[in-house]
Amino acid sequence: MTHFCLDDLERSARAVLPGEIWDFLAGGSGAEASLEANRAALERIFVIPRMLRELTGGTIGTEILGRRAELPVAVAPVAYQRLFHPEGELAAARAARDAGVPYTICTLSSVPLEEIAAVGGRPWFQLYWLRDEKRSLDLVRRAEDAGCEAIVFTVDVPWMGRRLRDLRNGFALPDSVTAANFDAGDAAHRRSSGHSAVADHTAREFAPATWESVEAVRAHTKLPVVLKGILAVEDASRAVDAGVGGIVVSNHGGRQLDGAVPGIEMLGEIAATVSGGCEVLLDGGIRSGGDILKAIALGASAVLVGRPVMWGLAAGGEDGARELLDLLAVEFRNALGLAGCDSVGAARRLGTRVSRHG
């Protein structure tokens, strides 16, 4: 099947994934209001294009956390990628390497972080704060030793949000998929009607992160620390004061607090408040190159893309994930030029308007 946009890959992925695995990937928490709002908020934003600009020799490359990327995109952390394809994280990481964009290894990856980092490219490591602080900091050290370039510290998961699709499905991991980075026992594999085994497992393993946790991580690594899950301007300001390298404005793809504001609605205010004190990235609802352009115009240095990369992985393994990233590059180049911009830097000077309709 020929895929002309990300929606085409979504349909292909849904056709091949079992229903409960699709729900695990696609679903949000509660009534999924925040999940749906992420897309609705992006669709209300319109860019004001500029005309009569010189567009020859333009580039879609940029710097993210001080290193070159061929597209202002990083692959977001997604747990248990062997649910979607037998090669899981290895295939997705190879696709990101070939596309020239960072790939974020998840604490709950189904392949050991060292094997994923060995693929090459630009690996980052995403950290969940565990009840055992030593195990958390050991993961940070392992990631640095393996060659990861940043620690993406997810701060919006003191425990997993109440995801009704998983509860209704009694979702549990198959025996072939495990949390490969630490011994997690069999809690995530115990199927029980009306329960999410994955949520039960994280409730046992995770602890709420605090600003003291952030300081502990910063003291334990030379790598830049990026806080993922920031929505309040006050938290963004404190993150700068804490000396972090970046923040990801995100409501966790609508999977944590249902009713949390979409990240794109807070992005402009947060970027203005941070004012260069650290990098600002956006996560949540990105489904096209045009969406990337909107995020950059509102102050993001780059975006994170999660579910769509998994659609590509499910639909075609490494080739499918690479196709997804190639589609984003084609779409972003088109949107950038049509907006009258020859670079990502020029896109940061575009104006935007929010539609009064819809």
Automatic annotation (TrEMBL):
<dbReference type="InterPro" id="IPR012133">
    <property type="entry name" value="Alpha-hydoxy_acid_DH_FMN"/>
</dbReference>
<protein>
    <submittedName>
        <fullName>Alpha-hydroxy-acid oxidizing enzyme</fullName>
    </submittedName>
</protein>
<keyword id="KW-0560">Oxidoreductase</keyword>
<comment type="similarity">
    <text>Belongs to the FMN-dependent alpha-hydroxy acid dehydrogenase family.</text>
</comment>
<keyword id="KW-0285">Flavoprotein</keyword>
<keyword id="KW-0288">FMN</keyword>
<dbReference type="InterPro" id="IPR013785">
    <property type="entry name" value="Aldolase_TIM"/>
</dbReference>
<dbReference type="InterPro" id="IPR008259">
    <property type="entry name" value="FMN_hydac_DH_AS"/>
</dbReference>
<dbReference type="InterPro" id="IPR037396">
    <property type="entry name" value="FMN_HAD"/>
</dbReference>
<feature type="domain" description="FMN hydroxy acid dehydrogenase">
    <location>
        <begin position="1"/>
        <end position="357"/>
    </location>
</feature>
<dbReference type="InterPro" id="IPR000262">
    <property type="entry name" value="FMN-dep_DH"/>
</dbReference>
<dbReference type="Pfam" id="PF01070">
    <property type="entry name" value="FMN_dh"/>
</dbReference>
